[in-house]
């Protein structure tokens, strides 16, 4: 790797690391995500410094002639872990939305009971009633 590319890569790694540290200080990242992003930023910082080591791993251990491929494999692996974490988060949030829909339907039913069973015909209430029926 040329000297200019090493400097640019290191600078990008430092900027990326600073963004992650700021996000952690603002509590914008959950702990597991923060850990993963710190690891990837340290990996980016280590590429220009530990290039000979990565080449040795690629050639001697993995059997790949070009060290760039080992970096691609590492980055793709990291992205797969991130996508898996996001999938888990979406699944949890979907379950919470279903619980909220159910609770809203129950509360709406109880509210109608206490009001004496009065029916409102506003479009929004009709849609809400349809959503509550779908949730059950």
Description:
The chain has helices at 3-25, 31-49, 51-62, 67-114, 123-135. By secondary structure, the protein is an all-alpha fold. α4 crosses α5 (123-135). The termini are far apart. It contains 5 helices and no strands.
The tally of beta strands, per DSSP, is 0
Largest sheet: none
Overall geometric form: elongated
Give the rounded overall mean pLDDT: 79
Question: SSE order, as H and E?
Answer: HHHHH
Query: Number of helical segments?
Result: 5
Which residue ranges are poorly predicted, with pLDDT under 50 across at least 5 consecutive positions? none
Total domain units: 1
**Share of residues in strands:** under 5%
Radius of gyration: 26 Å
Could you give a short description of this structure?
The protein is mainly α.
Summarize this structure as a short list of keywords or feature phrases.
mainly alpha, elongated, 136 residues, 5 helices
